[in-house]
Amino acid sequence: MNKLIIFDLDGTLADTREDLANAVNLTREYYKLEKLDLKQIITFVGNGRTKLIERSFKDSKNVVIEEACNIFSDFYGKNLIVKTQLYDGVLKGIKQLHKRGFFLAVLSNKPGDFTREIVKHFTISQYVFTALGGGDTAAVKPDPSGLLRIISEAENSGFYREDNNIWMVGDHYTDLQTAKNANVRSILCNYGFGNPKELKPDYTISSFSEILNLL
User: What is the pLDDT of residue 199?
Assistant: First the structure.
């Protein structure tokens, strides 16, 4: 049976924490604000760039969020893959899933250009048929628009949807809610840095390689 597996990026495929936090603090430095702690910044991640900046600048009423988003993107784009690394087993696992003939895709709330650059840098792009980021098609997750677009693209490429053969894999409640909104199954990566809140996935994994046994 064909399967379609859609992966989140940050906290699922790659540990991007330090580069994200660095870009946030460079942006705060631009506005002459004190740096924030890494752990605090990471609690702000998961709902897209705008929410990240809004949360990171809630201590300043003088910052124009749209401007700060652009400044953040400039800093982040220049320091995108300094400390970022794939989690253990990700590339090997992606290769094996691709070899099995599964349809693979990436759906992130990170801006699309950055999403695709990271996916390409770590050679994942040759195994996924698409990589979408926040703002590519619709609102960020948990809005299901991006996921539904991926399903449509897969169907145009020969994927046949059946019960329980589409999976959303992520580390954050936005991923779980997106899966629920699109009526697909979900896997929570509890090794990531997201927060599932009260949402319950179909399965929880502690390492990426566990996906190979589940699917």
Answer: 97
